[in-house]
């Protein structure tokens, strides 16, 4: 079924006000989920909300955190999330980063005691909407091996940059490994996965999707993907005071621990170097330069990072948001409708 | 032959003082080349120096630039390199970034009107030696295609992070494509290159190294490598005022243009969040955690980013720097010795 995003936002918000989250904060959780749903990244969208809700109900997430600046330098800010929802803590972090970038040129906010961040580019887009460049990182539990290892040593560790553009913001929001979701889909369909994606539980290369799920992922581009994963671990966990490496517990699946996630958010103001319109003009000129390149076939499409997600936004604006009947009914009943 | 690095440094310095570069600046050029040579990245080391020297002699590089802060915010600094050697301009940029990071927590310096940066991690290591984290980017002429394109649309666009460590600094300094040097070596040896590395001049996939050299590279990890390349182009060129996209001319091979390279250097001070020794202890704990993981075979080596280069430094300290007899004689005669 197709729902009106505003209606879906209201239902998602109520899922949290009904478990003690203040109205405004509950709206932030819904915002984040809707951004992912509307941009076609459903795996990071409203599908996650029942878990967040259950974690609040089971005392694993603080619904009313006192988010606190611990150190203030003033362009490197250390933020204690008091175990609040990341959607609340990191929204605050992005706000601080943007305000300070406007003032000083650049600002980085390092958060800890936070939870599952979901779509990094949600926070980045909030920053880019203000004409600023965002750079965001977040570590995850270890799922990924590296050369010479026969067990996971690093997370899928997403890294994200968002840049203001003319027709659409440039957005790169990527994990340093193939997506586990794609492997799950292959396993469900009984299909193989490409070579180089995964090892089995004994650390041997495999193209068997089921064996890969029992085993571990491999980093993209070998030592380069692994290296980016290490960088993400440093910025988002070692630097922030968050849990790192093998001590990271799953912020969704593990109900025995509070995860103490750490995140890193930077905002940078290009208008401190050139007029905002000049920067956006240069970005647009570059986009057009790349997109008008010689094509490999007449119907080839040279995409820019973030362009597919922007097309999805346009599609949703036209026809509404596709939600399964089952999810729609489940969420409605959760909020007593 | 093996030379004493100090002797080699002196010869390299003289190569530039003899063409009008002030002694201190010439020393910086030698520093950068030596860092690359000593860390086993000879392709970015002293082998490049005759080209820099010739470019100075032909009026393409300004040997005595007036490097000038154009905008000062104070943590986003715009630096006009006055067409100086990047080894001089970006050393200044790294210095400013580190000083300001010490004061404010973080500082980014965007340079333009500069030249070939060579090894990004040289500048990053200078920052990491002071206990700071470095993040550096630099665009290049277009050598890399992307999905749907049949011509190069983006540079090999290196990106680099350096992080202080206990036994060695963590260093990731990577291009977003396979190394052209490896393809040149394969072509010279008449060997094929792996699938997915390159397209021929008509934009068709090829494993023929010679055809690849006439054609174009492919980004690592498909849209992810391409996306990182776009990010590097934005930070180092669109933001700085440097040349971007297809307008970039080769800073070594093109003797018809001054390249107006742009670079981006960030420094961040972890001691604003926790005591320096606590940060380094966390980094070291993480390094040990990863390195002590279960191995794929008893003699497997789980390396950390920057570890191989550190081992090369130790080797050079022991036995000296390997330089070909021909290069040694050539450089000596250039400086009249």
Automatic annotation (TrEMBL), chains A, B:
Entries under SUPFAM superfamilies matching the protein: L-sulfolactate dehydrogenase-like
Gene Ontology molecular-function annotations: oxidoreductase activity
Transmembrane helix in keyword set: no
Keyword annotations: Oxidoreductase
InterPro entries for the chain: Mal/L-sulf/L-lact_DH-like_ah, Mal/L-sulf/L-lact_DH-like_NADP, Mal/L-sulfo/L-lacto_DH-like_sf, Malate/L-lactate_DH-like
Domain of life: Bacteria
UniProt family annotation: Belongs to the LDH2/MDH2 oxidoreductase family.
Protein's name according to its UniProt entry: Sulfolactate dehydrogenase
Taxonomic source organism: Pusillibacter faecalis
């Amino acid at each position: 079924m197709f729902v009106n995003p505003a209606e879906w936002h209201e239902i998602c918000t109520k899922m949290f006000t009904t478990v003690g989250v203040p109205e405004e904060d509950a709206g932030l959780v819904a915002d984040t989920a809707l951004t992912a749903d509307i941009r076609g990244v459903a795996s990071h969208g409203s599908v996650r909300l029942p878990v967040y809700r259950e974690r609040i109900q089971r005392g694993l997430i603080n619904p009313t955190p006192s988010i606190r600046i611990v150190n203030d330098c003033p362009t490197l800010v250390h933020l204690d999330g008091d175990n609040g929802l990341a959607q609340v803590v990191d929204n605050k972090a992005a706000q601080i980063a943007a305000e300070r970038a406007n003032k000083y040129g650049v600002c980085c906010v390092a958060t800890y005691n936070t939870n599952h961040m979901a779509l990094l580019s949600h926070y980045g887009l909030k920053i880019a909407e203000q004409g600023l460049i965002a750079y965001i990182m977040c570590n995850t539990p270890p799922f990924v091996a590296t050369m010479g290892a026969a067990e996971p040593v690093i997370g899928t560790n997403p890294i994200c940059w968002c840049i203001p553009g003319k027709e659409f913001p440039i957005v790169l929001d990527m994990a340093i490994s193939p997506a586990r979701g794609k492997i799950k889909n292959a396993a469900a369909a009984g299909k193989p996965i490409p070579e180089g994606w995964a090892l089995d539980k004994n650390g041997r290369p495999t193209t068997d999707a089921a064996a890969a799920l029992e085993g571990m992922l491999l980093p993209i581009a070998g030592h380069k993907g692994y290296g980016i994963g290490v960088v993400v671990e440093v910025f988002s966990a070692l630097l922030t005071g968050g849990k790192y490496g093998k001590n990271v517990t799953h912020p969704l699946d593990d109900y025995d621990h509070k995860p103490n996630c750490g995140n890193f958010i930077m905002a940078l103001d290009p208008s401190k170097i050139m007029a905002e319109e000049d920067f956006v003009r240069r970005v647009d000129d570059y986009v057009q330069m790349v997109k008008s390149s010689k094509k490999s076939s007449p119907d080839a499409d040279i995409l820019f990072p973030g362009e597919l997600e922007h097309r999805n936004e346009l599609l949703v604006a036209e026809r509404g948001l596709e939600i399964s009947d089952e999810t729609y009914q489940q969420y409605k009943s959760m909020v007593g409708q």
